[in-house]
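Internal ticket - ligand job 416, pyridoxal-5'-phosphate:
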Amino acid sequence: MYEELKKADKEIYESIRGEVLRQQNKLELIASENYTSKAVLEALGSVLTNKYAEGYPGKRYYGGCEYVDIAERIAIDRAKKLFKAEHANVQPHSGTTANITAYLSLINPGDTVLGLNLSHGGHLSHGHPLNFSGRYFKIVTINVNKDTELIDYDEMEKIVEKERPRLIMAGASNYSRIWDWARIKKMADQWKAFLVTDIAHYAGLIAAGIYPSPVEYADIVTTTTHKTLRGPRGGLILSKASYSKAVDRTNFPGNQGGPLMHAIAAKAVCFGEALKPEFVNYQKQVLSNARKLASCMSDMGYRIVSGGTDCHLFSLDLRSKNVTGKEAEKALDKAGITVNKNTIPYDPQPPLITSGIRVGTPAITTRGMKEKDMENIASFIDEAIKNQKNETALKEISSKVERFCAQFPIYTGFEN
Ligand code: PLP
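stdout (structure tokens):
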């Protein structure tokens, strides 16, 4: 693979080669990333990228769609089966476009939306002022409780009663505990709000049945397909049958043009993989690894936000180590460990500095790492943070990390 690219475009070939080596030689602890299978990559790199297919299977605005129709129908059927959903739209280009479609299927610009504060774990598309969500809707936010760092449902209910949002957006990019979907549904019903749940982070765990599913409660569920679900980059919308027309129409022609048929075929492959029993074992291991890594870090004196995790991620509060999230991210990168800085709830530091880092296990678990490997990883992280200003030490750690990673090869399409 890549021989033609090497000849045709050396600069891009070299950038891909650099990324291949980075993915092979470094420890990927970004909670929203993963390694897709070879089959997903093949579908993604297929000639389906050449095809225009505006519309939906059987109702296209272009000829020649008989084969892409097959792929999209399979993707829809598998998504519905995987999440026990009444309707699935597999076309959103991303999680953000899925959320735009979800909002505009149910409410109008100017309406009030309630979401989790970004600096408490929410996502940009749940109401950040610079995002479409914050620009087109009136946003009210909830925070996590200062003491427990958990969603405070009593407080949430008071805000819903006072602000009367038309839509509650429940979901997060950085919340490691279980969402009480049933309780939020009760609130939504009582105060006549629509309920949208964004399961982008938890989707793989939910598909495997080891994290509660909101599908029976929510009017619309949105997700990405590339995080714990381990598929290609993209979005997915699930909904009650009664919203199927609104969702499909809002996605196309409302919010997108031609669907990315190569990505839809790759989503179908990913859903097929997720329907297999091995996927349940994988997700169990993701959770076990996250809990083990969090407990190793806690034993080394790091505070875990909310005290632990029920999913694939957790946040470390670095204040007791006298290092900011920004400094830790940089030092860890030099040591061959990739994480992202993240605000902790009620963070005294601004968002570009932060007091924490977010750590996730989906990618390292795909590589085959198990609980005992988490002990090594925790030591690498601790050593790097302790030596954050010592370039020589960081370089030595990165060599150790590279040797460690070599025991867990990934498929990259490169021979060497
Ligand atoms: N929703 C949540 C909860 C996310 O964490 C993310 C991405 O991190 C998204 C939506 C947006 O996905 P995308 O980056 O595909 O637009």
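Auto-summary: The chain has a mean pLDDT of 97. Residues 32, 94-96, 123, 125, 171-173, 198, 200-201, 224, 235 surround pyridoxal-5'-phosphate (CB under 6 Å).
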